[in-house]
Amino acid sequence: xxxxxAQASAQQxxxxxxxxxxxxxxxxxxxxxxxxxxxxxxxxxxxxxxGPSGCGKTTLLNLIAGFLEADQGELYIHDKPVTRxxxxxxxxxxxxxxxxxxxxxxxxxxxxxxxxxRGVPKAEAERRVREALALVKLEDFADxxxxxxxxxQQQRVALARALVIRPRVLLLDEPFSALDxxxxxxxxxxxxxxxxxxxxxTVFVTHDQGEALSMSDRIAVMSRATIRQIGTPSEIYxxxxxxxxxxxxxxxxxxxxxxxxxxxxxxxxxxxxxxxxITSFQTDLPAPGPVTLFxxxxxxxxxxxxxxxxxxxxxxxSVYQGSHTELHVDCPLAEGxxxxxxxxxxxxxAPGEPLAIGLAESGxxxxxxxx
Amino acid sequence: MYKSxxxxxxxxxxxxxxxxxxxxxxxxxIVVFIASFNESAILSFPPQSWSTRWYVNAxxxxxxGNGLRNSLRVAAFGAGIALVAGAGFAYVxxxxxxxxxxxLNGILLSPLIIPNFTIGxxxxxxxxxxxxxxxVWTVVAVHVIIxxxxxVRSVYVSLQNLERAYEQAAESLGGRPLHxxxxxxxxxxxxxxxxxxxxxxxxxxxEFTASLYVVSQRTETLPVAMYNYVREYADPTLAAMSVLYxxxxxxxxxxxxxxxxxxxxxxxx
Lengths: 371, 269
Fold this sequence. Notes:
- Chain A has helices spanning 7-12, 57-65, 107-116, 122-135, 151-163, 181-198, 209-215, 233-238, 243-248, and strands at 19-28, 31-41, 46-50, 72-77, 80-81, 92-95, 169-173, 202-206, 218-223, 226-231, 253-263, 266-271, 274-279, 289-295, 300-303, 311-320, 324-330, 338-344, 354-359, 364-368.
- With 371 residues, chain A is α+β, with helices and mostly antiparallel strands.
- Chain A binds chain B through residues 65-67, 86-94, 96-98, 100, 102-104, 113-114, 117-118, 145-148, 158, 161-162, 165, 171, and chain B through 163, 165-166, 168-177, 179, 183-184, 187-188, 266-269.
């Protein structure tokens, strides 16, 4: 029902990506907000820009929306250069963090705003507004004012308002951060269903790694004004390429180690007093020298203290989680002095008890100091 | 919550102090209010006998009627022009960066520092030097200069509080800049614009010092007419006039308050 109006012209360039970013950068008053970035967003893809505040993700979103103009580089939407095209000609839908519903208009007039600016005939506009409201299950709220709605309902109106213009790209700027936990989960599922059913290219900005992992086709992890890694959620989670991505997404244990020798993906490491061999998922290992050994908690297991190749630690706190227990351990080799293990719930360990952390044969990586 | 004796003492001391301050603020008006009903033709306090004849006199005195008409006209045009110009300046200051922005801002706000009599004198000298006629528009011009900074401030603050996301959402939905300005920005700024205009109108209606320099017999504003009256007569008519003045301005403010309530009802705030 909400099919791209540009379908006909788009047919000729059907294999062109929805969005292509080529060397786009942005600075504000001398401070770099975005280093030159290049990336493609495919048609129908749900791409998440994930990173801490100030990492440049909102700047990139604003550049795609046209609220900011790039210092250099070129931006293409459906293969047409739009770097200097104003926002009102970009055919982009946006849902803001606080929804930005027009308070002086009814829900129906909010949703119809983008149709009025396009001069869509009244009858057709009314039908499309009804359809859009039906899509977000708010048919009965057309005459309400935004502030008579709950947070979740306001978000649906904002979504309907963005979808009714049949945008080429939907931009979502932290839309869930104002919702409480239960509603957030429900809205995430609903949004993803609508997005998939419409085949709508979506760029989603968030700092919540759980949200990013559960919703995205691909995630671009950003920090310090640049993209640190881009890939599917499992690539990002299982095979982080650098220290930042590894620690920002999911739980990670990081140990200080010295890389003694590396051959292909196999590495021999000095871990404090002992030596360990691991098989990294990386194809490129850093040069021998001081490194950080990265292992997810699920790739660690409890071992007898003193076993060669294991890392000594003492139990600090054990947290019962139902299906398993999280053991937070004091570990001199770990970054920040702390590491975490997931063990079966029946395992009984008391705080202060010495133990050793054993490493699985796979799932680990070593990052050089510069990462 | 438990309150000790000293807490209670502090509580009562605070209340008494507050009452005294408020009393001090309205004391002049209370004196004038009582004096306006004095039967005697000499403005004395407290009155010996009571009458409302000075109110009748205030209404019948020709110069006051003329002054009121002039004052209303000057306030309406002055506030109107200041609103349009001030809103424009505020918008430009809020949205654009340009050379000499601070200098221009300083000039715009300078009437806050320059005394009103200097502004009046300046315009008087200027019109005399250029042998321009001094008519009602001269008075309007002086009032625009005086109230403009207040309007600029009022609209500027409203603009600062207006989240850009509203306009960005409208733009992303295909709204061209002018369309967004008319359908989103201005409606959302309306309370600030109304407040600025009313404030400007009241300031203009009360303005005396600068007006004194530029009015003629024909264009004199109500405050100037009242000043001229008191130079000739010492009866309580002026007290009655003051009461009417305060009542009119208070009524206007009440009306504004009602409108703002109405805004809330209409969900436009």
